[in-house]
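Need the bound structure for 4-fluoro-L-phenylalanine, inputs here:
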Amino acid sequence: MKLARFSRIGFILAAAGSAVGLGNIWKFPYITGENGGGAFVFVYLITVLVIGFTLMIAEMLIGYLGRRDSVTNFEDLAPRDKHLWKYGGFIGLTGLIIMIFYSPVIGWTFHFVLVSLTSLPSSVAIAETNFTEFISIDLGSQVFYHTLVFLFVTTVVARGIKGGIEKLNFILMPILFITIAAMFFYASTLSGFTQAWDFMFAPDWSKLTSASLVTAVGHAFFTLSIGMATILTYSASLPKDSNLVRSSLIVIALDTGIALLAGLTLFTFLYEYGATPSAGPGLVFISLPTVFYEMGFLGNIFGFIFFVALASAGLTSAVSLVEPIIQYLVDRFSFSRLKASMASGLFFYLFGMIAILSISKEYGHYFTIGSMNFFDWADFVTASVMLPLGGLIMAIFVGHVMEKERVAAQLKTQLGAVYPLWYFSIRYIVPIALVVVMLNLVGIIEL
Ligand code: PFF
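Answer from helper R.:
Posting the output first, comments after.
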């Protein structure tokens, strides 16, 4: 089946919309805080440049040359063992598993849009109680917001690439850019800004552990949306004669730029108002609302626009997380878009309910395996295992399976003098780095 095409700018916005998400504004600042700041940021930036850049081009290439859903593309582009390589395309399933926890968290941002206007907490202790009660006792509200996310995402993707996904990104991405830039500008005038800058850019190598290395690599994948066929699926709808290298660079620059701006802004606010940067996942939902309270009326406005921006970032990523499987169902099984969107939507909706139950006080123990509940498992398995694995499959596919000439024909002119370096990186550096990271994870290698 022929796919609808993005416009050139539509593709950039949609791919950046996918990349810039909760990962940039919620996760990046708190894992930076937990892992000691500068040294972690340095490793993350190197990973983005070396592994991220190499792989994003490879992923775009598979989509752009194949022009169909991810499974069919792997099958079509493999010169041999097609029936085996087609399973590579199932890395698209990772997105549905990410949605199991991603959708409830987008729901939290909806809740905090309201909190910002009505009841900002006056102390960290109150904020902590409110947030803990919200996520562990107030199941009704969470299910309500999760339902809104399900309805919203399903409606958008059911409208297709052009009328749904491209349009959504045309509306929400400018809102996101302007909000983050405005808040950053304000933060840069405050005295806490210098401390925030030092925290993020002055590396203290003693704080870097092997666990933080793995976290940095996992996050680089998560934040760039690579390793699960999202970028691949969007690239199947790229206009003809697109420059994959330029598109990758723009998407990576936007994604990294927004993460750094969001991090600097958040840490400035936290330093300015005496909160700690190492607050963990509650950073944005506990420390920040208290800071907004301290700011007075301005804080209500800032809080409101901040959480609207965070929700927008989450929603543009959410549509990209479900799209690979939708395209697969439409392309291979002739599902209508509506039916395919409902099927993938119901999957994350129902399992998302279990994720919500798994963090609740009352039912949590039913859904806890080992030291982690279902919610944390979904996060861990996807970011630390499935995304690096997806990246490895793609690196091997483009570097060792696809014909050399075919890859070169597409990328040699676009990459110019960097081409040999890129090809070396996709054949050796990326796979070896990923294998090392994964072996470290299961404890076979100690980094
Ligand atoms: N990149 C998104 C974020 O940083 O929040 C999350 C994400 C979207 C991951 C799409 C993977 C993906 F395919």
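Comments: The longest strand covers residues 368-369. The mean pLDDT is 91.
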